[in-house]
Known about the structure:
The complex is a heterodimer. Chain A is an alpha+beta fold. Chain A has helices at about 5-20, 35-40, 40-55, 95-105, 115-120; strands at about 25-30, 60-65, 80, 90.
Amino acid sequence: MKSLKELEEIKQRTLDSVNLRKSRTGTRIVVGMATCGIAAGARPVLLSFLEEVKKRNLGDVTVSQTGCIGVCRLEPMVEVYRPGEEKVTYVKMTADKVRRIVAEHIVNGHPVTEYTIGAAE
Amino acid sequence: MTSTEANNMEDISLHILDLAQNSIAAGASRIEISIQDIPEQDRLGIRIRDNGKGMDQDQVQKASDPFYTTRTTRKVGLGIPLFQASAEATGGHMEILSQKDAGTTVQAVFHSSHIDCLPIGRMEDTMAVLILCNPDVDFVYTHEFCGRQFLLDTCEIRRQLGEVSIADPDVIGWIKDTIRSGLEEIYGGV
């Protein structure tokens, strides 16, 4: 692999902030990654969340996957868990919705109600 | 409507992401993803091999049945039948080799000159999602084109990283860039 040196630099940079990321008390963003989610566009949604987390340097936010959330026609679906708050489920996700959810919900704590499963049903 | 029109998987990298989820659900600790792109033989070979819990003969047969699933959240398991349909739409085929408690290999041949052959798609995105969400699984991704080969082995990356997580956003960014430039290199000049 030709850019191992670059990886070493990332490692050194990250070591400073690594304890912050290990924190389990932070916000969790969980994307449904079953066949239904993937076919509906879950991959770019998950990667957009990661991109926003990276851009804003949100050290205590983790992005992960789960299986089928159960309402395939509303995929891609995303669940947001913030400590001490009710889980919020977003449906029919797109990369544009991701940016707004990160800005309003993840950073500022106000769920984007119009994108939630409650608004869709 | 033909089977390809009903199939929402837009490219092969999405099929691979989906099939690897089966390996993860089967408890695999190592998943090998291999793409062999040999245009002069009109052959695109895809293989996903895992060391998960495997299936017996009966389960292997049922796995290609669109009305079979081990899941309880939804009654229909579509990943393997969709992959099979995509391969067969090009005149190719798919097979499942599995042994209980030893692992499963799903492999397919696509005929790449066929008009219905899906593009390979963004393998860097598929690998980024798999590694980010399954940092403890070993992924070995090999991609061959015209005798040139790209290899990504997460064991090696993890060894290099030491205590830094492979799921760190900057590391995932580096993995994506490495795959993109590695594939550009083997496909270079085409």
